[in-house]
Design goal:
- The protein is an all-alpha fold.
- It has one domain.
- It contains 15 helices and no strands.
- Helix 4 packs parallel to helix 8, helix 5 runs antiparallel to helix 8 and helix 7 runs parallel beside helix 9.
- The longest helix has 23 residues.
- It is globular, with a radius of gyration of 25 Å.
- About 35% of the residues are buried.
- About 15% of the residues have low confidence.
Length: about 290
């Protein structure tokens, strides 16, 4: 009975109208598919806006725990901890404006990371899960770890293995990794010559007055291009597009709205200044 009724109904509908109905149905299906297949970054950004205070605190604690424990693990990776690496950890504590109790917790986490039984991959996976696919937060975390590895002036092979594992677990591409490494090197004042910024192992860490990366006439212009993620021969439109995309991605106000802890907003502010200085350096070099 049902099939007969449907057949009679279809016969009574004009062919043109039938095509219209079918096109509408296809269009609705496409829209539904597009909404449900929204990119991960967009889903993350939208979901993080509605974080509860408890969820925000969980992300903050996860970032804090992972940051200092993994820093300790990297510092110990080549067998012994350098004074410069301890000083860099203190600098991160200062940048995060941690109080005395939080500082003590950070030191304890750093020491836990130095232990032989520290579970690196487990810690990184937990951090990834608890931070709800916050891509910018992942990058801030990895940038700090790269700085920890560079604190003595170079990235040892054992340290690089750890950094690449972190990038893999957090799904950070090779291109993004290179951008973060350039940012970390320039921020520490290393530039191209890693040996000139720090004295030999065990020497005191030479700390810059400001943590804002310095892009100037002496900075390798290639670093500026790598930081923006464009080729050296990129045209003005491509460079400008990359610059605007990065500024939007790392702007502190945007990060604050997506659940990033307050401690990382200063890091984000420094990063946007570095991006802007790199862009200005390219413009000067190309006379734009």
């Amino acid at each position: 009975m049902g099939l007969y009724f449907l057949s009679e109904l279809l016969n009574s509908i004009d062919t043109v109208w039938l095509l219209v109905i079918l096109l509408i149905a296809i269009a609705l299906a496409f829209v539904s598919f597009a909404v449900h297949r929204r990119p991960v970054e967009q889903v993350s950004a939208l979901s993080n806006v509605d974080l509860t205070p408890e969820e925000s605190q969980e992300i903050r604690q996860s970032f804090f725990t992972a940051t200092f424990s993994v820093m300790g693990h990297i510092a110990k990776a080549d067998g012994h901890v350098q004074a410069s690496q301890i000083a860099l950890a203190e600098n991160v504590i200062k940048d995060m404006s941690l109080n005395a109790r939080q500082r003590a917790s950070a030191i304890e986490l750093f020491n836990q990371g130095k232990r032989a039984n520290f579970k690196l991959k487990k810690q990184i996976r937990r951090f990834r899960e608890e931070c709800a696919n916050n891509r910018s937060l992942y990058e801030d975390f990895l940038e700090i770890q790269i700085k920890a590895a560079l604190a003595d002036g170079k990235i040892a092979r054992e340290e690089e293995v750890i950094l690449l594992l972190i990038a893999k677990v957090l799904d950070i591409s090779s291109k993004q990794y290179k951008q973060l490494e350039v940012l970390a090197r320039v921020s520490l004042g290393l530039g191209d010559d890693h040996s000139q910024r720090f004295k030999r192992a065990g020497a005191k860490y030479s700390q810059a007055k400001s943590s804002v990366p310095k892009f100037n006439a002496t900075t390798n212009i290639k670093d500026a291009y790598v930081l923006l993620g464009v080729d050296v021969g990129a045209d003005e439109a491509s460079v400008k597009k990359a610059y605007r995309k990065l500024m939007n991605q790392h702007h502190p106000d945007k990060l604050a709205s997506t659940g990033s802890p307050e401690e990382v907003l200063k890091i984000a502010s420094d990063k946007t200044q570095a991006i802007q200085k790199a862009y200005e350096q390219i413009k000067r070099a190309r006379a734009w």
